Amino acid sequence: LTDLAKADPDVYLIKVDIGDFESPVADQFALRGIPHVRVYGRDGQQVGAGSSMESTIRRNIEAAKSAPAPAPAPGG
């Protein structure tokens, strides 16, 4: 995942270490196993989740990158 993010300037990778699956973060995102990968588009909407298979992650990233950018805020 780190190499994938380094190779593409449009990809941002955020890692969260979960040492306790009873933690607030694990509970908030319903994490039950690691790694757990979520991909979000430019508009902040989730495109894919769950799979740690590289081919699925790449497909989700391409879907996120091809999604339309969010509309500018009114008056912005």
Structure description:
The protein is an alpha+beta fold and 76 residues long. Helix content is 32%, strand content 9%. The chain has a two-stranded antiparallel ribbon. The radius of gyration is 14 Å and the shape is globular. The mean pLDDT is 82.
Keywords:
alpha+beta; 3 helices; 32% helix; two-stranded antiparallel sheet; 76 residues; single chain
DSSP helical segment count = 3
Radius of gyration: 14 Å
Number of DSSP-assigned strands? 2
Helix content: 25-40%
Give me the side-by-side strand order of the main sheet: 1-2
Order of SSEs: HHEEH
Category from helices, strands and their pairing = alpha+beta
State the end-to-end distance: 34 Å
Strand content: 5-15%
Low-confidence stretches: none
Shape: globular
Give the overall pLDDT as a whole number: 82
Sequence-ordered SSE layout with sheet pairings:
Layout: H1 2-7, H2 24-28, E1 38-40, E2 46-49, H3 54-66
Antiparallel strand pairs: 1-2
Question: What's this, in brief?
Answer:
The chain contains three helices and two strands. The chain has helices spanning 2-7, 24-28, 54-66, and strands spanning 38-40, 46-49. The N and C termini lie far apart (34 Å).
